[in-house]
Amino acid sequence: MVENEKGAAYKLLFFRDGKRMAYEKDLCYNRRNENELGRLNMQQVPENLKRLLQQQYGLIQMEQILQGYSQQRPVTLRINTLKTDEAAVQAELRRAGIEYVGVPWNKQALIIQGAREPELRRLALYEQGHIYLQSLSSMLPPLLLRPQEHENILDMAAAPGGKTTQIAALT
Prior knowledge:
By secondary structure, the protein is an alpha+beta fold.
């Protein structure tokens, strides 16, 4: 799930018989009820999408993809080293009673355990921009790009800007 700064989640859209169908309620975190995290019911996945997934990935991978829709995504964040450092964020999370584990391939990334996005959004760390809620997969492109100081980079997918700020922090 991806949210913009206002908390509105992107919708998963399907087309069935020419009609647009959105599964926002079933897929996305609902800020109005912070304890509710909806999951996609397998019966709600259109048959034509199942067929396309099976054609493209095979039966086993299709089932794994559909299974993934029904699981809760781990909460991950990136430490914004333009404003703070790893030690300060880790100390503040410990003071707040929030457990985390590091990510071996990115020392600015943490996987949060026992807390969800709403709890992190209430922290001063979040409000001050010291942490950025971001999926681990979204942290990969800037690392693979290996940006250099004084290099011009055009981020064509810059919304809400997580990769862009990560690129700035890396240079």
